[in-house]
Amino acid sequence: MRRWILASCPLIVTFIISGYGFRPFKVEVPNQLKVNKPELVSFPEDESLLANYQINPPFLGRQFVGFKEALAFKESQGNYFVTNTFGYLGKYQFGLGTLELVGVYNGNQFLNDPELQEKVFHVNTSRNKWILRRDIKRYVGIRMNGIEVTESGILAAAHLAGPGNVKLYLRSHGRMEITDGYGTSISNYMKKFSGYDVSMIEAKRNPRI
User: Fold this and answer.
1) Biggest CA pair distance of the chain
2) Which of 22, 37, 61, 209 has the smallest CB count inside 10 Å?
3) Contact (CB, 8 A) for 181 and 104
4) Which residues fall within 8 angstroms of residue 60, CB to CB, at 6 or more apart?
5) How far apart are CA 151 and CA 35, in angstroms?
6) What pLDDT does 9 receive?
7) Can you tell me the mean pLDDT for 70-93?
8) How many Å apart are CA 120 and CA 5, to the nearest integer?
């Protein structure tokens, strides 16, 4: 909960004590402390609430580095060492099942190794691109649910929901919508991460670390 404080100056204080012979007086506020109108001031009672504030990530362009950093910011605000309430790990929020598919079997080691996390993201994106290679050719440029399908949007959605669910979404022309545990949908990622150049990612069958 946030507390809202209405601060209004100048402040005139009149102090009257009746029956003791004191005369009313006023305290003048110095000019440098005066404001022309009320100001609204807010602060959180709990600093942990700051984690819920919407902060825009730095814009790093439309190349692959911009894509991966924007995606990481959405997943974890770029924190290599975080685990979410569903047990997903690290900067890109990988599940243990996905890590095993690319050859990583120790979650604690993964969580404490930023270099490994970057390698896993690259390898898993290559894997997703292979699985979705035909769908990328077929559906890029088509509009679904009012959103233009792009290659980067497809790969971002695959990171969110898995390549199999993205196939269902594309082949149903957007009718088979999938959301994660926090309510984020495939179409949301399709829109948010559209238009990045991810051509440097090579589609690879079963790549491993």
Assistant:
1) 94
2) 37
3) no
4) 66, 69, 70
5) 53
6) 40
7) 97
8) 47
pLDDT of 33 reads 46
Environment class of 105 (CB within 10 Å of its CB; exposed 0-12, middle 13-18, buried 19+): exposed
Question: How sure is the predictor about 57, in pLDDT bands with cuts at 50, 70 and 90?
Answer: low
For the chain, count helices (H), then strands (E): 8, 6
Structure-block tokens of residue 79: 């924190």
Q: CA-CA distance, 38 to 8, in Å (whole number)?
A: 5
Burial class (CB in 10 A: 0-12, 13-18, 19+), 176: middle
Entry pTM: 0.72
Give the Cα separation of 154 and 8 in Å (integer): 52
Q: How far is CA 82 from the centre of its chain?
A: 13
Burial 60-90 (b: 16+ CB within 10 A, else e): eeeebebbbbbbbbbbbebebebeeeeebbb
Read off the pLDDT of each residue in 182-197 and give the average, rounded to a whole number: 96
H helices present in 51-150, as ranges: 64-76, 96-101, 107-111, 114-131, 133-139
Residue with tokens 């695959």: 158
